[in-house]
Design a protein that fits this description.
alpha/beta, Rossmann fold, 2 domains, globular
């Protein structure tokens, strides 16, 4: 049976180093500053890649992260030392996004990932075995199945651990020896894997998951923690949503026009007001739903609306195209959140003259 390997352009979601290969190559070409061992580019160049800017050659680099510049600089500086990096924040603050782009810029490979869940086994952090070979050959190098972290240690690359606090505590603690000694013992072979220069770990953790599987103090000491905040202003969050919607729309080949800025602004305002518990003018307090109302969810609402408008409308994003996505994003708990949402519609949305269409569309669904 013939198997076709998809071309890069056909992949549903390209990795950061694939999607931004042109930018990475140009930055690397222009970068004349000192690079840490096995880094693809200097810390300054990594910062330019994430935050955007114009190179000496005149090439324009698009920003991947919009926010406090110093936070990104601290994260990059941490990875240039022997300390691992923990990106902490509420859902939707671009922790995974930043982690992926840091790995892509530093080592050109963001694929060495351990996805944390309640069922993540120790083998995902250390190594496993090819049991067919293990039975025939016994413990051997050929029977060993390296984890993403082991591969990163051998290559001198960045390993990523997503949602660290969702991993069981005993599995989390397998990182202690790796982070402190920079070695991974393989007791069955009476050997140990020693990390090559350039190896480091970026972990992400959700603020709201504290208490699910708290990090031990021994493990937490091995990390430098950087907190990624929610966007500080409406304009900043609007810029993030607009850029990501445009990029995802292009990647997914969504039909229809680019959404009007005012339509996107209304969605972002709704998310910010419900998240902050107060209207943007500071005059009216509102109840917050149980969900996080994250920027990532706002992006999803706009993209879903564009798909509806393109496939089942005239291609122009309207209130009734975003109403279902907006309601679904707010109402996670069908009892408590529905009360919060209806109250917000009646006391805030209904009173805004230029929001009447959004009020009617959401009220009909609720």
């Amino acid at each position: 049976m013939k198997e076709a390997i998809a071309e890069v352009g056909e992949i549903l979601r390209q990795r950061a180093e694939q999607q931004y290969s042109e930018e990475l190559a140009q930055i690397e070409k222009d970068d004349k500053k000192q690079r840490p061992p096995n880094w693809r580019m200097s810390p300054w160049a990594v910062s330019t890649y994430l935050l955007g800017g114009k190179l000496e050659s005149g090439f324009e680099v698009t920003p991947k992260y919009i926010g406090n510049k110093r936070i990104i600089e601290i994260a990059i500086a941490t990875l240039a030392t022997d300390r691992a990096l923990l990106l902490l924040g509420v859902p939707g603050t671009a922790k995974s996004w930043v982690s992926e782009h840091l790995a892509a810029a530093i080592c050109g490979d963001s694929s060495m990932v351990v996805q944390g869940t309640a069922g993540t086994p120790e083998e995902a952090m250390r190594y496993g075995w090819n049991y067919a070979r293990l039975l025939t050959e016994g413990p051997s190098v050929n029977a060993l199945v390296p984890s993403p972290i082991m591969r990163a240690m051998k290559n001198g690359s960045i390993a990523r651990v997503e949602e660290l606090t969702r991993i069981p505590a005993d599995v989390q603690d397998t990182l202690i020896t790796i982070l402190s000694e920079k070695t991974l013992p393989v007791s069955e072979l009476n050997e140990q894997i020693q990390a090559v220069k350039g190896f480091n770990v970026i972990a992400t953790a959700n603020d709201r998951d504290r208490g699910v599987n708290e990090l031990s103090s021994a493990l937490r000491r091995r990390f430098n923690t950087v907190v990624l905040p929610v966007p500080s202003s409406l304009d900043e969050e609007l810029d993030i949503v607009t850029r990501r919607v445009a990029a995802l729309g292009k990647a997914l080949e969504l039909p229809g026009e680019a959404p009007a800025l005012e339509q996107v602004r209304r969605i972002v305002v709704v998310f910010r007001e419900l998240r902050n518990g107060i209207t943007s003018d500071g005059k009216t307090k509102v109840k917050s739903p149980t969900g996080s109302m994250s920027t990532a969810e706002a992006i999803s609402v706009v993209n879903s609306g564009i798909a509806l408008a393109g496939h089942f409308g005239d291609g122009t994003l309207k209130a009734h195209d975003v109403a279902a996505g907006l309601t679904g994003a707010v109402v996670k708990d069908p009892v408590q959140d529905l009360i919060v949402w209806k109250e917000y519609l009646e006391t805030v949305v209904k009173e805004r003259d230029d929001w009447k269409d959004l009020y009617r569309a959401c009220r009909d669904l609720s």
